[in-house]
Amino acid sequence: MARRTAPLETASSRTSAQVRDLAAGLNLLLADFFALYFKTKNFHWHVSGPHFRDYHLLLDQQADQIFATTDILAERVRKLGATTLHSIGHIARLQRVLDNDAEYVTPLDMLAELREDNGQLALRMKEVHDRCAEEDDIATASLLEVWIDEAENRTWYLFEASRPAEAAST
Ligand SMILES: [Fe+2]
Questions:
Q1: What is d(CA 28, CA 130) in angstroms, rounded to the nearest whole number?
Q2: Which of 17, 112, 123, 169 is the most buried (most CB within 10 A)?
Q3: What distance in angstroms lies between residue 64's CA and the mean position of ligand 1's atoms?
Q4: 49 Ramachandran zone, left/alpha/beta (phi>0; psi -120 to 50)
């Protein structure tokens, strides 16, 4: 029965305080990724209006990209020697990306909200990246660099897609 109560450990050369610190930052990001994934899908499902097809497809591509990070991020936490998220409830307790349960949101408000969320996510990833650099965690830093670029790419698409036609031509 000792195995049943044994802590779930993974080999790591870092001190437990370092691992705790890195894992805490990464698990917060993971909760944000799941919350943003679901919000992006929510808007993909509920968007309407003359640009329906464009927005519907754009948000699906963005949701796929966001979801693709989650497994890699969770397993990075496990490789560091810590545990990661266990449930939807765990996500809800940690997420900083706010849910949007409104019955109707205009398409431009959807794009603006996701643009803001992705911009915030990029900033939070940069903060964790700096912590990784301090702790010499090159592997996590390298993953974050790719995901920061992806978040900035999503922000760019959302910004350009929501510009009024006259502003886009100047
Ligand atoms: Fe779909």
A1: 15
A2: 112
A3: 10
A4: left
Residue 165: its pLDDT value, please?
Answer: 75
CA distance 125 to 128: 5
Distance 10 CA to ligand 1 centre (A): 37
**pLDDT tens-digit readout, 27-56:** 999 999 999 999 999 999 999 999 999 999
The residue written with tokens 């643009």 in the block is: 115
Cα–Cα distance for residue pair 24/82, rounded to 1 Å? 9
Confidence band of 95 (pLDDT split at 50, 70, 90): very high
> Ligand 1 center to residue 108 CA distance, Å?
19
Calculate how far, in angstroms, residue 57's C-alpha sits from the geometric centre of ligand 1.
8
State the amino acid at position 39 in one-letter form. Answer: K
Tokens 């940069």, residue located: 126
pLDDT digits over 137-146, tens only? 999 999 999 9
How far from chain centre, in Å, is Cα 54? 22
From the CA of 7, how far away is ligand 1's center (Å)?
Answer: 40
For residue 115, the SS3 value is helix
**Ligand 1 centroid to 166 CA: how many Å?**
31
Name the pTM for this structure: 0.90
